[in-house]
Amino acid sequence: MSAPPAITFSSRRGRWVLVATILGSGIAGLTATVVNVALPAIGRDLDTTTAGLQWILNGYLLPLAALILLGGSLGDRFGRRRVFLVGVVWFAAASALCGLAPNISTLVAARALQGVGAALLAPGSLAILQASFAPGDRARAIGAWSGLGGVATAVGPLLGGYLVEQGSWRWVFLLNLPLAVAVTVITRRYVPETLDPTVTGEIDIAGGLLGAVGLGGVTYALIEAPGRGATSPLVMLAGVAGVVGLAGFVAAERRGRHPLLPLDIFTSRQFNGANFMTLAMYAALGGMFFLLATYLQTSLGYSPVESGLALMPVTLLLLVLSAKAGVLASHIGPRLPMTLGPLVVGAGLALMARIQPGSSYTATVLPAAVVFGLGLALTVAPLTATVLAAADERHAGVASGVNNAVARVAQLLAVAALPVLAGITGDDFTDPAAFASGFRTAAFLTAALAVVAAAVSWATITDDILAEKLVEPDADALATDDHYHCAADGPPLRAVESPAS
Predict the structure, then answer these.
(1) At what angle do helices 312-332 and 366-390 cross, to 10 degrees?
(2) How far apart are CA 258 and CA 255, in angstroms?
(3) How far apart (Å, rounded) are the C-alpha atoms in residues 492 and 494?
(4) Which of 122, 434, 448, 484 is 20 to 30 Å apart from 402, CA to CA?
């Protein structure tokens, strides 16, 4: 396929391409945030336990984490626009099933299908921008994508609370249908098809399946062990299958001629350190966000809208300060922001341990949310820049995809393991006293994870890692007119541009 003419940022077509990619990635991001607020209502309506609530989240995260690299690879081979559209339609159909689910089993199965759709559409949004826009406009396009896409994350908790309070939790999922129709129409009309003509060889289906089996087995064992018992044959079988699957994935990627995940990307000590830091940080974030919205409603009596509003300071601070943190890292290096940021996050998480039934918002919830948000804003952009800078240029897309997958795996494992470690099991999410005791423990555990992230950053990251990458806009470093490869979308890139760009 010949390369389509490059699109300019100021053109009418360029604006529509931006709308399509922002809305496409936005529906996946929106779903991830609104569901947390809806969990108590879902639990009451479908009469489920803590394990059921865990599966509502992990049913989505599991296929997303396992298949996102494969989704990017399919787009490079068969066309990013084509795979993006398949993902959007698939996601919409799965969202309809979620909204109509009569019981928890059906809802979890539909959420898993949603995760498959997200793994197909998420890599395409950033890849389409990189491959379609003229080199000089890529940084602006990615900046608009990351900034406006962040709005979906910011309004998600509030919108989810409003839909639950004024209608039903089912509208949280059905909202995706008109958005998906809009994305499909705009994409078919305005988005050009692009693919990577240099991609050859077989698709690494075995690697993708082994990764999914590994993550699925480990996740099932962690979630079901408290209820069924750690010695339950089913739990033990799932755990063993998970470990064997993960080991098989590593072996397949090491020996495969066309691996989904080239293992030589892990020869960089700083790349490994940044991803281990991501694992610890996003485990802390995923575990806390799973519990916090439910805790505010169950133990403090907040309405769904109030719990959504309670978390708004975090997302607003991210939107306002993330780009500035990226510029700061370009001036002083990423080591200090990536160390202080997680420590501030840890302080915010520790402050959340003060939130008890009867606590006032301004005295307990707001200070914790502000400190937490400040730390997160200081961390995210330098982390993104470091991950991309630590990998070879030829692995830029894979590096972004790996970091994205690591973040999803961290959330997956945290949602599975944190309630168990904090003593929240069975019907505890409906018991304010039991939930309060477990939440306090969870706050300190997640704070400890943030401290681990800070220690890893201090030990592995150096300030000179960004020097070469900040000479020119990063978007141009990731692609040329002749060749582009992006295995998956990553965190926002706009914040790591050089001050002069």
Answers:
(1) 40
(2) 9
(3) 6
(4) 448
